[in-house]
Amino acid sequence: MNDSNKQANIDGVAGNCEAEGSPKITRRNLLKLAGTSAATLAGGSLSMHSVSGEVLAPGAASVPASKVTMHVNGMQHELLLDTRTTLLDAVREHLHLTGTKKGCDHGQCGACTVIVDGRRINSCLTLAVMHQGSQVTTIEGLGTPAKLHPMQAAFVKHDGFQCGYCTPGQICSAVAVLDEIKAGVPSHVSIDLLASPRATNLEMRERMSGNICRCGAYSNIAEAMTEVAGGQA
Ligand code: FES
Ligand code: FES
């Protein structure tokens, strides 16, 4: 189709909705109109953010931000965050607690596991603004080099890691898994959903299945967990 035919078609379609006395819509006018509408819409959403009382991040007038107060490893933190910030990025980039690792950033590896209000979660899959007032525990909050958490000590004793990249997530998960079992929460492999689950090798492996270890330290991790659980694999 040549240019004059294209223009004729556009003029023809535009002609169907042309109001009497309005200027003729040409391809050029149509493109200008579309550009103006997009700019108007963008401006509208910006002013909505400001009018609704949301705080705009410093130096970034177009980025909506919110104040978030969280208790991380027993300390209260007040953060002004872009509302799209994940809990993982809040912890690593804003609080500089880099023990929690970013593996896939898609909820598939478990490297980012932290404990929020007693439950293990993938911190890459949740927004920080959803955890206003939450108690967050990262690997830094479980123990210190001088006084390891029993699970950290068991990982060292049973050689539950090689490169160590998955280890903070594995340990946070392992701690919360044993708490889950103690609390009687069933898993996919629990045969009787009403009976109290036991910390068997099968239960622990199933519950830890979201924590991937590229070095394959799984059996050593299970041994460490078994020791902490005080049971037999
Ligand atoms: Fe969150 Fe992989 S980084 S699951
Ligand atoms: Fe290397 Fe688990 S110890 S990925």
Describe the overall structure.
- The chain has 8 helices and 6 strands, in the order ααβββαβββααααα.
- A hairpin with a 2-residue loop joins strand 2 (64-72) and strand 3 (75-82).
- It has 3 domains: 3-45; 67-139, Beta-grasp domain (Ubiquitin-like (UB roll)); 143-233, DNA polymerase, domain 1.
- Strands 1, 2, 3, 4, 5 and 6 form a 6-stranded mixed β-sheet that branches.
- Mean pLDDT is 82; it is low at 1-23 and 29-54.
- It has 233 residues and is α+β, with helices and mostly antiparallel strands.
- It is 40% helix and 13% strand.
- One FE2/S2 (inorganic) cluster is lined by residues 161-167, 213-215, 217.
Give the arrangement of secondary structure elements.
Blueprint: H1 3-16, H2 27-51, E1 55-56, E2 64-72, E3 75-82, H3 87-94, E4 113-116, E5 119-122, E6 135-137, H4 139-142, H5 150-157, H6 167-182, H7 201-207, H8 218-229
Parallel strand pairs: 2-6
Antiparallel strand pairs: 1-2, 2-3, 4-5, 4-6
Helix pairs in contact: 5-8
The chain binds FE2/S2 (inorganic) cluster (2 copies).
One FE2/S2 (inorganic) cluster is lined by residues 161-167, 213-215, 217.
What labels describe this entry?
disordered N terminus; alpha+beta; 8 helices; 233 residues; DNA polymerase, domain 1; binds FE2/S2 (inorganic) cluster; single chain; Ubiquitin-like (UB roll)
Q: How does the overall form come out from the CA principal axes?
A: globular
> What name goes with the CATH superfamily of the largest domain?
[2Fe-2S]-binding domain
Report, as a whole number of angstroms, the end-to-end distance: 74 Å
Secondary-structure element order, N to C: HHEEEHEEEHHHHH
Number of domains: 3
Identify low-pLDDT runs: 1-23, 29-54
**Count of helical stretches:** 8
Approximate helicity band: 40-55%
Summarize model confidence as the mean pLDDT: 82
Main sheet summary: 6 strands, mixed
Task: Evaluate the radius of gyration.
Answer: 27 Å
CATH fold descriptor of the largest domain: DNA polymerase, domain 1
The CATH C-level name of the largest domain is Mainly Alpha
**Approximately what portion of the residues adopt beta-strand conformation?**
5-15%
Report the strand count. 6
Helix vs. strand class: alpha+beta
